[in-house]
Amino acid sequence: MAAPLALVLVVAVTVRAALFRSSLAEFISERVEVVSPLSSWKRVVEGLSLLDLGVSPYAGAVFHETPLIIYLFHFLIDYAELVFMITDALTAIALYFAIQDFNKVLFKKQKLLLELDQYAPDVAELIRTPMEMRYIPLKVALFYLLNPYTVLSCVAKSTCAINNTLIAFFILTTIKGSAFLSAIFLALATYQSLYPLTLFVPGLLYLLQRQYIPVKMKSKAFWIFSWEYAMMYVGSLVVIVCLSFFLLSSWDFIPAVYGFMEHPIFFMFIQIAIIAIFKSYPTVGDVALYMAFFPVWNHLYRFLRNIFVLTCIIIVCSLLFPVLWHLWIYAGSANSNFFYAITLTFNVGQILLISDYFYAFLRREYYLTHGLYLTAKDGTEAMLVLK
Amino acid sequence: MGLLSDPVRRRALARLVLRLNAPLCVLSYLAGLAWFLALAFPPLTQRTYMSENAMGSTMVEEQFAGGDRARAFARDFAAQRRKSGALPVAWLERTMRSVGLEVYAQRFSRRLPFPDETHERYMVSGTNVYGILRAPRAASTESLVLTVPCGSDSTNSQAVGLLLALAAHFRGQIYWAKDIIFLVTEHDLLGTEAWLEAYHDVNVTGMQSSPLQGRAGAIQAAVALELSSDMVTSLDVAVEGLNGQLPNLDLLNLFQTFCQKGGLLCTLQGKLQPQDWTSLDGPLQGLQMLLLMVLRQASGRPHGSHGLFLRYRVEALTLRGINSFRQYKYDLVAVGKALEGMFRKLNHLLERLHQSFFFYLLPALSRFVSIGLYMPAAGFLLLVLGLKALELWMQLHEAGVGLEEPGGSPGPSVPLPPAQGVGLASLVAPLLISQAMGLALYVLPVLGQHVAAQHFPVAEAEAVVLTLLAIYAAGLALPHNTHRVVSTQAPDRGWMALKLVALIYLALQLGCITLTNFSLGFLLAATMVPAAALAKPHGSRTLYAALLVLTSPAATLLGSLFLWRELQEAPLSLAEGWQLFLAALAQGVLEHHTYGALLFPLLSLGLYPCWLLFWNVLFWK
After folding, report:
1. Is CATH 2.40.50.140 what the domain over B53-351 is classified as, yes or no?
2. Residues whose CB falls within 8 Å of the CB of residue A24, separated by 6 or more in sequence, listed in order
3. Does pLDDT of B423 surpass 80?
4. Which H helix or E strand runs over A240?
5. Among candidates B436, B427, B416, B435, which has minimal Cα distance to B488?
6. Which residue of A has its CA nearest to B407?
7. Does residue B37 belong to the interface with chain A, where contact is any CB pair within 8 Å?
């Protein structure tokens, strides 16, 4: 199996190298879809140069990477392209071995269930064979490496790739069953961006399942293992954070990386709104919760730019829900697409509303520190634009 | 997002909207009206065609020859009816059984909310009789209905005769795949409603009826027949149903196919079909018929028994035989053959009619305008409201930026923007008061009819109508009183905020109405939008007040009655028109309570409060 994988790696590296050398590299690294303010390479370079000048990289509120990343690139800045290509390769290899192991476990489990006669008698064609599962790890590596999205992220040198590697290694170590390594990689991934925190529960469940520990409240082994895993995770996280502190001799990185430490309630409000928008089966009750917070941000009203259009969108969609339902179900003429379109529009309205509030919040903070009337260097009136 | 977030472009857009607002609004309104008037002309109308494959290519040879039998049945029925005064239930049961149907009867009764002057009834009780022809080899899962509504004013005896003769003829055939229900209802629409409710096991309108003993599966299609003479010169078809719902266009296409096949003269809206579509005559006649259809659909009345079937997703038509002064007449055999052909084709249906359009307008029987082509007309009209609202918002926002907002009270549960420079207290009061007036208009007339009848020398029905008019007119006096309740905080901005809310409210209502009943939405938009856009407390108040009163919902109703009769070439004098208007008001309230028609609640609870808000804006101090 090594030969096809090596071939795929070579092809992937070639593609990336070719793109790095072409003129598209500049263009791609500016695209909004590929880089975000949290993962853009330009900002890494900015932070590094600030560090070289002896200033804290977090001073300009531009840099949002973690100190470990700074130090990684401090030593490897000349080989940046190589680093990103290696990162992608490492992710692919980690996924390859992870899926290979996973398939073995799956197949073993299927064999056990077959022997125990747990399956219905006529499902022979549904049973998976080793033959068909043989190429899956290779396909996974292929999918990751040759996916245009991955290629674009690599060429743009977005630090999202490093996050992907850490999560891939987390998956590999979890499937292999090493709780300690799994906790470390999860801590590293969480350290870089908070969201992998949600992977804690699935990781724990898999490790429990692997050791045949039942997930029951009364089982002692369950509690012992969970406690161990949680401690390893939290311990690693604490170690990494303290290490970062020592690297830069300050705690500045915490607000820069995780943001809004001074305004946790606003952060909470945004998070609730995001949960309401993106959850699987949203209802208007979810929307009602975060809308109750609007009077709290009354003072932001004057900075909201699109509140009229958004309010109209939301009211119109709310009224059109029952009308289009009636047309679909009772009048028999419309179909589900109409209802779905209104759902989409409603969500778009909500997203625009949240981003509007975000912008208003940031703008007010800026005005508070820099004065209400902005003038550019030559005395003309300046305008604040969110980039 | 660049347009919405880039400040430079936003300012340019704002300036553009503010400067060009009036011309854009006028242009949009005129475009909407022009588009509507252009609907009858060839590029926007299309020829009708049969969309359902199952009904398209089958050849049918009609063999109905029971004309004499039909006439005999009709004479017997008329005699029996004269003798008994009501529907001769026993005779009908006997005859249907002799023809070979499974016969059932259903009793129903209802007390109307107030006496119905047009049909002269108050406590209604009657019996429906129906016979089911079971398909010989099918599982009784689907059925077709042929119904004849018998009221006290229209005996419809020839239709009953034809129904019985057709039943006898159908009984002898072996090709039926669906059951056929032959339904004779008493008190026409009330009986039909009672039967439908009992058949579908629901109770929407408070009718008391005995449960049905015999059913025949899901009804796929229904045809209602009204014939009052032995010979007919033409067959008139009615499609508009309750709340402006229309049957699937394929059913109309089916009827038209058989009219053409049998050489029958078919009319729509009581008028002959325009033949010449190349010159200007055809489209102009088509426009006349289009306007008639729009007015009928907007009224939301069921123009025949079929209108009540549509609510249960049963495609239905009403066929009326008209006997006028024309040389060539058709007898019952011709009508019977057309019906036989229609039923045979409907027999071939594999699934419910769904291929063709459910929303259309008919300039002629063989032409239609689909929803995709007529909706932009309403869209242009509603755009005016949107533009005006945007302009008001920008004016409010420009004035309010840079000022300190006073601590306004939190708004209602609707996500209105938080306190503007006016304080929401001055908005909530007019909204609540207008809505309360609307509620009074909806509830009081029927509730207070007995009290009114006691104190004034009027009958109950008149009391209802007069209470309606009184409350409506009382709303005009409101602005002079609201200002005593509300303490005006901000002098000039208050009316702008109120007008903004009223414009959005009106646009929302009209938008929702247009989606379900285009004609009603368009008619109301065409009349209310200019007055709403122009209302403001400065300038010539009397002119704007006159415009607003002339375009209020009640005035629109009065105007459309005159227009309707004008289009039917039977113009009304003022006195007649007023009488008809009062009768229409009473019928509207009655139909809301008996069939669930939505025109009355929409106008009283939705549009009248909105109109009152504009009246408030006009008289803002």
Report:
1. no
2. A155
3. no
4. helix A220-248
5. B427
6. A298
7. no
